[in-house]
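Narrative of activities, Objective 1.

The group set out to show that a structural description can be obtained from nothing but a protein's sequence at a throughput compatible with the screening campaign. Below is one input-output pair from the validation batch, recorded exactly as produced.
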Amino acid sequence: MTIEAPTNAAARIASALEEFWPAPDAVGLFEKGPELAEVFAHYSETPDMTMLEALVAAAADGEMVGPLRIEEIPNEDWVTLSQGQRGRVAAGRFLVHGSHEPIPPRRGVIEIDASQAFGTAHHASTKGCLMALDAVLKYRQPRTVADIGTGSGLLAIAAAKETNARVLASDNDEIAVRIAEENAQINGTPHIRFVTAEGFAHPTFLGLQADLIFGNLLKSILFALTPGFARHTAPGGLAILSGLTEDQAPSVEARFGDFGFMVKRRFILDGWATLLLCRRSAGPLSD
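Output recorded for this entry:
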């Protein structure tokens, strides 16, 4: 499938497609002009047009986009091809690579292949989260970490490799959870607890007061989960949020501000924002 959209909307659509099920074999975008890009996604089977149109409309967030086009292309292993085209990614102390490019294991090195789960650090939102984690680890060592919407498990793995923290992670996609567990084994962090759940809705999170919580999610999901972040982030604890374009960040900052969070730092990469927030000692825990 392909669709043309303004650059910022195209980036949001590409990110949303990576989280869509059935997951595409490959997703990407190409610049078509100063403010225009084409998003593509390759599928092994024809996706549901109605569901795709709804996802695109939500990700476009009111911006005008072109028609959604679906056409058959020659059969190829698009995951393998996309892996071969992706190089290593450096983000602070972290170096993320695929299995096609072996690197001797050491602290900060993470092996993640393109798959049916989002998160290889090639997307600016994931890279921004790694940069934020690197910044946090320069001055504190969290004891409990949660990763909500873990996808490939990359952020949970990064935290587990660089700390002695108890690490919990959730995703609402059973396949993503299985892939994340496999990635944790590959990277020597099998102790991470992965669960299939919508956000924090799992017994594993009952009573949790985490020192650090990741949320690399769409804006609408972050809005819905804000009370959960407030309940499960310890006073003085941190939240690293992304999946946001730069223009979406202020509304998310305001939303989390209403629940007792304050902005400590912003990371802007290629028009995408990552927010490092700190929860004050008091604040509302529900809407």
